[in-house]
Amino acid sequence: MSVNEASRWNPVDYAANAAFVPALGAPVLALLAPQTGERILDIGCGDGVLTERIVATGATVVGVDGSPEMVAAARARGIDAHVVDAQALPFGPEFDAAFSNAALHWMLDKGAVARGVFAALKPGGRYVGEMGGAGNIATLRAGLRQAVGEMGYTPPAGDPQWYPDVADFTDTYAAAGFSDVRAELIERPTPVPAGLAEWFRTFRMGFLDQSGVPPDARDPLAACAAAIAEGGLPRDADGTILADYVRLRFSMRKPD
Ligand SMILES: C[S@@+](CC[C@H](N)C(=O)[O-])C[C@H]1O[C@@H](n2cnc3c(N)ncnc32)[C@H](O)[C@@H]1O
Predict the structure, then answer these.
(1) What is the whole-number distance in angstroms between the Cα of residue 2 and the centre of ligand 1?
(2) pLDDT digits (tens, 9 = 90+) for 196-221
(3) 59: which of 42, 106, 212, 230 lies 20 to 30 Å off by Cα?
(4) Is the CB of 87 within 6 Å of ligand 1?
(5) CA atoms within 13 A on the CB side of 234
(6) How far apart are CA 43 and CA 101, in angstroms?
(7) Which CATH class is domain 11-253?
(8) Measured in angstroms, how far is the CA atom of residue 101 from the centroid of ligand 1?
(9) Which residues of 20-42 are buried (b: 16+ CB within 10 A; e: fewer)?
(10) What whole-number distance in Å separates Cα of residue 120 and Cα of residue 117?
(11) pLDDT by residue (tens digit) across 124-146?
């Protein structure tokens, strides 16, 4: 299986509209607890903003990402990043730990990812991360699908992400050989500082490609999707819309 066509990223838009993604990765970074001198693999490292924070702890970090544009942005930041499909990780048992934030749900061959991370870890190595979980951004996804249909385009038949529940996730990783597989779903209503229309343009570029939406129709379509979704979402005390994020946070280890 190749890199998911729904996963398409523009690093400039990502920096402008998605900075909350690496910023909200702080708790899972704390769970990783990187140590000086450790060798750590960051799976789906994106533009490397969060990777840089692992490097700052004194660990040696290798980032892999399927997007050449995001890898270029990470390299520009000084990260040792490589264009690699994480569904075909090429590593032997060389890492003390593996980490991933907001990326695994784009990788539809979940078993291949699990087996590749297992192979990349030293015996006893730990794997910690966070991804979209069951129910993630359901209102945003429904709003976009409705807007695509109302504007006369045809969205892809299924949902092009894997947003697992706890059992699906833990079964997948236990089957790859991991032990102490722990996962929890965390509802995280999330302010989207740039607004929902920018969210759709940034996070669903590939979905709009797959739906056949031409460039000049993207802004009106994103505005339409935002108007639909806003009706179903709460606001915080300042009136900022809260997107219906649900995260699945996990930890596990490779047996000794
Ligand atoms: C939302 S970004 C998260 C980036 C970063 N981890 C962060 O916290 O900001 C998701 C990343 O997953 C990457 N990705 C998607 N499918 C992938 C695959 N099959 N192999 C490697 N990376 C992939 C995308 O290219 C994108 O950079």
Answers:
(1) 14
(2) 999 999 999 999 999 999 999 999 99
(3) 106
(4) yes
(5) 7
(6) 8
(7) alpha beta
(8) 8
(9) bbbebbeebbeebebeeebebbb
(10) 5
(11) 999 999 999 999 999 999 999 99
